[in-house]
Amino acid sequence: MRERRLVLLFILLSIGVGGTQFLHAQTTEEKMKAVFLYSFTKYVDWSQSDGEIIIGVYGNNAVLDILQTDLKGKKIQGKNVVTKSIKTSPEAQGCQVIYLPKSNSSKLSEVITASEKRGILVVTEENLVRQGAGISFTKHSSKLGFILNKKVLETNQLKVMTALYKMGKVI
DSSP states of 101-164 as a string? Predict the structure, then answer.
């Protein structure tokens, strides 16, 4: 019950801080994943990043479309948020956040190799935290949640705020 309240608070804070227009359409699972991705970036220290925070989505996906529409003009920690489709692992090196949809889960090892120790947050649609993702979405009783791999996040030199660890499940 406490975990569910924290996740709800996480979502409400995310849409409240960025403006209520972030969820201007019906709430779908893809829309919720987009909100979570945007929110995850708020709980990481990006002070070492220059100018922009780039969220790369591996391949084309409904989440990418939502992010590109809803994040235009948004800033996190004073930096512009940019979203783009990436199709190769070397492209991932230019991103701060990489989202790997289920359709591209087979690319995880390539993405991990390209992003390792570079301050890149890898988020997967499938539960792949034990395989090296920093954060993975989970679904229990049709409720969306997330798992964090603290060791991977630390190895990738990401400074994650304690609040994010409290909202998800940590391994």
Answer: -GGGGGGHHHHHHHHTTTT-EEEESS--GGGT-SEEEEEETTEEEEEE-HHHHHHTT--B-HHH
